Amino acid sequence: GRAAGRHVVAVQDSSELALGSRRARAGYGPVGNGNAAGLLLHPVLAVEAGTGALLGLVSMQVWNRGAGELAPRRQRATANKESQRWIDATKQAGAVLEGAASITMVSDRESDFYELFAERPHNVDLIVRACQNRRIEAAQEAPGLLFAFIDAQPEQSRFEVTIPAAPGRRARDAELAVRYAPVTVRRPLNGADPALPETIGLTLVDVREVSKPKDGSEPVHWRLLTTHSVATVAQARRVVDLYRSRWVIEEFFRTLKTAGFDIEAADIGDPHAMINFAAAATIAAVTIKQLVQARDGNTDQRLSDAFDPD
Hints:
Structural class: alpha+beta
Distance between the termini: 17 Å
Strand content: 25-35%
Radius of gyration: 20 Å
Order of helices and strands: EEEEEHEHEEEHEEEEHHH
Shape: globular
Number of strands: 13
Largest sheet: 11 strands, mixed
Number of domains: 2
């Protein structure tokens, strides 16, 4: 209901809840490259485009990995992989937020796989930070590669943004150079369902920091694949601004862990009970993040966004 009539950014990401090796004996699966035990959490947060107001929790998945051996990744269908969570969350956003004026799902590099673009709901646009140097249709006979293609494009504009603070990084102003172009992405040769379309038309928006940061941080470089049409610099800038909305989920995870609930310190030996607790804490952490936004006066939200009238 809160999303009705609004332009909404749905931000999804995964985080490991590492509960410590002593709980491995209690039935918790591996996390952290197998060096610890715990759960995995995958929430979707609804954010109003422009204001950044956190409207609420769209969906979440909490699960405990099995300890058994899995078949090699390329020998399993997507439905049998953890990557299916990105598709399920996108479809859930399309259903829950159907009253919104527009829905844009934003996600980071882990979600860059062909099926997500092929199976997105009709009412959900995607902005995905590219990870795979994909084959694309090109003018020459042999397929081109995504990264080399965009690197060869002329710079089309520059603009300044504020890069927010993060662990080990101070907030800073950065000048970004932008390039953008339509691309036709080809279906992967290995592992992709042959029933998927052979090609998908997308737009690639490339932004990179012009100079090296003085604090020694890595310069910003985002290659953003999107289903949005981008024909102008203003539209490219909007894609970048929508992608930057994903920082709210980083702040949410920080509230759930180090800055708020310290959920990884919970002394719960039963994985099923811990899954329930993680779900309840996720809901509460969203409310706390809404209250922090209200305290800072950055959004024009009502108390009913965070609490039922009763």
